[in-house]
């Protein structure tokens, strides 16, 4: 859909206003075009095998770099951020097994997809005929690249998108639509000389600033890897049994993180009360009760218990290791 400058401004203002009303913490818009800067980086990353068993990263290379191959007539990529940072009282204590904060509450795929559907429907009601698709980490879309392009943050040395005044504890999603809008521009990189994320990673997954070897990341081992966990990394996971937040926890920009207002991301009330013995003795029934609607279901009961045994280590009464300082 072609629009005048004035109409584009009005449409853009409506979209950003409605996104905020739906609970998104930020909304940025960029032109749907080929991601020229990201193409060589993605190609090199794949050539080095840093995707490991995440074979889907190898598929649809052209679609990952050009949204017009995903949506006919695509003209705009609407990037949205949704905060998931938990309140301090809802965070797990350091002396027990831990899961990544993003998995505390209801699976983000469902929460965000519902919001995106509503936003697209509202756009269609307000603007008219709008063609487009919603994407939530489930299709060949380079979320961080588009969010960066639309000015929502910069990609930090830990490869996470970082937003001034907000940090990085949020989900990224997109609407790719066939409507011309007013486009935002990127912001500068504010990582500076800081190397806290590189220094803190216990498995040295951040091989150099801005490059993460997926096959060395604790999140990869505890979620994506379906084989037995290699003994070469035994004792390096700290307390993490599903995902890992270390490189975000140490990032100075996350001192600006504020608790989410999204009630669906509140953890199951029993999660923070789980002690090491509770985790080691977890049953199928307890797993289903705690994680029925959580992203933890992705690794399944067998995967989670495998991770717990690995982190606990050998010996009677073994508990979680001490996290790196």
Automatic annotation (TrEMBL):
Its EC number is 1.17.99.6. Keywords: 4Fe-4S, Cobalamin, Cobalt, Cytoplasm, Iron, Iron-sulfur, Metal-binding, Oxidoreductase, Queuosine biosynthesis, tRNA processing. Cob(II)alamin binds at residues 64, 137, 158, 161, 172, 219, 244-245. Pathway: tRNA modification; tRNA-queuosine biosynthesis. Residues 179-211 form the 4Fe-4S ferredoxin-type domain. Monomer. This is Epoxyqueuosine reductase.
